[in-house]
Amino acid sequence: MKIRKMIAYISICTLLAGTVVPQRYNSKADELGDAEQEKQRLKDRKEEAEKELSTLEEEKDDLLDSIEKLDKKMESVSEHLDEVNKNYSKASSELETLTGELSLAEQKEASQYATMKKRIKYMYENGNQSYLDIILSAKNIGDFLNRVEYVNKITTYDNKMLKEYKNTKNEVTEKKAAAQEKKSQLEVLQEEVTLEQDNLKALSDKKQKRLKEYTTSIDTKSEEAKAYQKKIEKKEKEIEQLLLKQAKDTGFSGERVEDGFIWPLAVSGRITSHFGRRSAPTAGASTFHKGIDIAAPAGTAIYAAADGTVTTSVYSSSAGNYVMINHGNGLFTVYMHASRRYCKVGDKVSQGEQIAAVGSTGISTGAHLHFGVISNGNYVNPENYVSR
């Protein structure tokens, strides 16, 4: 009898401790793709970026055309970087969820294993009859049927416990695999973030080099540089005239600015150039500054200073990406050199709503926001309307 019990005990323990071969799971891990393919895609992307930069180096465009091409390429890279960052955040969140689910599953597995060990120990220590002995020792047919039902219930319960344990063990194995795959994906995404940041820096360095070369040309008074200078100044005047014309044409809208203006950035930043007379910070820039320049990290949110309607949202090789908002009461605000624009002409925007992101597009030597205010068709000092 003892030998038979011992065999039963060993058999069940073997089932418990044996390696559970997981089925091919259809969990989130299937959606993650193969890490090696992701790495190859990343390698291809890097080679593509290097080729594009090399092509830009070889092109002999004039300054404004070159800046426009570089800005467009930087905007494309910036958009891709935003997408990669979103994917990275999503993958991080999913990994955190998977890690929590894995922890719970492992706790459940340990609990079920402990419960089954207790059950086996109880059967071994307290059972002095086999199931067959219990059935055959029945006193009558009614007792026999009762004992058969009793044995069936115990067997069903034991089988259910074992099945649940095996399912939990499978679940743990699957979640471990999913978590590992997610970690691999995060590693690739982090590499991609770094790559796109490097791409942006390379393009920005190329642009600054181009501006520096041009400034040097201006200093030597070359004929080509003088021609560029006139072209840039013409472009600057065109933008100013366009903005002023829009302000004058729109005129008093009947709307009123409520509660004044707010600071147009998500950070306080640093005013590097105030309104009024100044030395041009770069070749082609105006010597009478019609706004304020606020230095801030690239990508910083640019906010609408007050409620209003977007009248301009466009790119210019001198002003970069810029936006103009009509706030009513003859007041307009202008936001220049953005890396991205998040509004279009005709949009109704609320005070504090993000309309763009800080950048260095157009004739610009570094990440900043040019913020201007137009009142009744004239540029006025923005510092009379906003403060940090």
Task: Write a compact overview of the structure shown.
With 388 residues, this protein is an alpha+beta fold.
Number of strands: 12
- Oligomer, anyone? single chain
Order of helices and strands: HHHHHHEEEEEEEEEEEE
Query: pLDDT average, as an integer?
Result: 75
Helix content: 55-70%
Count of helices?
6
Low-confidence stretches: 1-33, 252-256
What's the CATH architecture of the largest domain? Up-down Bundle
* Cα shape: elongated
Layout of strands and helices, then pairs:
Elements: H1 2-17, H2 35-58, H3 63-126, H4 131-136, H5 141-219, H6 223-250, E1 270-273, E2 276-277, E3 288-289, E4 292-295, E5 301-303, E6 308-316, E7 320-328, E8 331-341, E9 348-349, E10 354-358, E11 368-375, E12 378-380
Antiparallel strand pairs: 1-4, 2-3, 4-11, 5-10, 6-7, 6-9, 7-8, 8-10, 8-11, 11-12
Helix pairs in contact: 1-3, 2-5, 3-5, 5-6
